[in-house]
Amino acid sequence: MDGPSLYTYSTYRCSKVITQLYSTSFSWGIRSFDKNLRFPIYAIYAFVRYADEIVDSFEGCDKRVVISTFRSDTMLAISRRLSMNPVLQAFQDTVNRYGIDQSFIDAFFRSMECDLDQKSFSRKAYDDYIYGSAEVIGLMCLRIFCPDDQKFRELSAPASRLGAAFQKVNFLRDFRSDFVERERVYFPGLNYNTFDDAAKKAVEEEIAADFKAGLEGIAKLPKGFRRGVYVAYVYYRALFKKLERASAEQIKAGRIRIPNGTKLALMCSAIMRDRLKQYA
Fold this sequence. Notes:
single chain; mainly alpha; Farnesyl Diphosphate Synthase; 13 helices; 75% helix; 0% strand
């Protein structure tokens, strides 16, 4: 397939700027990919970031109408292979260029719509939400990494588990803000007011299992993408370890972060480990 037109190239550049503004860690991870493979990942990140922004931040408007319109505009852009919305133009070009499954996009929007009014989750609802909000993002990226169907199928389960681990770490990190700002608790069967160290431990055991399964797939990724994914893994694993060291009361007291200087050191360590093929 030919390269993007100047217009489409400009929209990919917009997606890159959005990614850099919203996520230092993901931006650094993407820079570890081969240079000619970065734009489609920027496109996916910008698309999901803006959809998430609608359901979490657009106060004073009918969010259901806005997300429904964004969904319709997305589908139209993909079918027409054109949009004057820069985020959707870059995303549709990526979807069509790499043959990303429509079912992944549908599952993503279902999860975004859950955020409009759902405040607590059963186990099934939680698993469905994780799949649509995180696992399918990993699968979209995996389709870019692995155009070969056999390789894609081989690595689908680890990619899903890695995406789930990242999302669950986000939930634990944002436990306070999700409840205080949105009265929402994602973890099934948990109550914010009675959340204690035992409940936290059970959540952490599940996340640790997801990380373990995800890491097993990273070493099998194509070279051009493996390092970037491993950088993201190392960052999220470090954040998870910091959350593990905190008490339940500390989690409820405020958001725990990794300083930018530490993120840079983690990236350098991950690059060295990837060169040595010592994944941990």
